[in-house]
Amino acid sequence: MDTLDDSGRDRERKRTIVWDDPQINKRDAVSAISGLDYLRSIRDGKISPPPAAKLIGYQLKDVDYGFAAFELHPGEHHYNPFATVHGGILSTLLDTAMTAAVLTTLPQNITCSTVEIKVNFIKPVTAESKLVRCEAKIIHSGRKLATVEGRIKGGNDELYAHGVSTCLIFKVN
Amino acid sequence: MDTLDDSGRDRERKRTIVWDDPQINKRDAVSAISGLDYLRSIRDGKISPPPAAKLIGYQLKDVDYGFAAFELHPGEHHYNPFATVHGGILSTLLDTAMTAAVLTTLPQNITCSTVEIKVNFIKPVTAESKLVRCEAKIIHSGRKLATVEGRIKGGNDELYAHGVSTCLIFKVN
Amino acid sequence: MDTLDDSGRDRERKRTIVWDDPQINKRDAVSAISGLDYLRSIRDGKISPPPAAKLIGYQLKDVDYGFAAFELHPGEHHYNPFATVHGGILSTLLDTAMTAAVLTTLPQNITCSTVEIKVNFIKPVTAESKLVRCEAKIIHSGRKLATVEGRIKGGNDELYAHGVSTCLIFKVN
Amino acid sequence: MDTLDDSGRDRERKRTIVWDDPQINKRDAVSAISGLDYLRSIRDGKISPPPAAKLIGYQLKDVDYGFAAFELHPGEHHYNPFATVHGGILSTLLDTAMTAAVLTTLPQNITCSTVEIKVNFIKPVTAESKLVRCEAKIIHSGRKLATVEGRIKGGNDELYAHGVSTCLIFKVN
Question: Which top-level group of life is the source organism from (chains A, B, C, D) (predicted)?
Answer without folding.
Answer: Bacteria
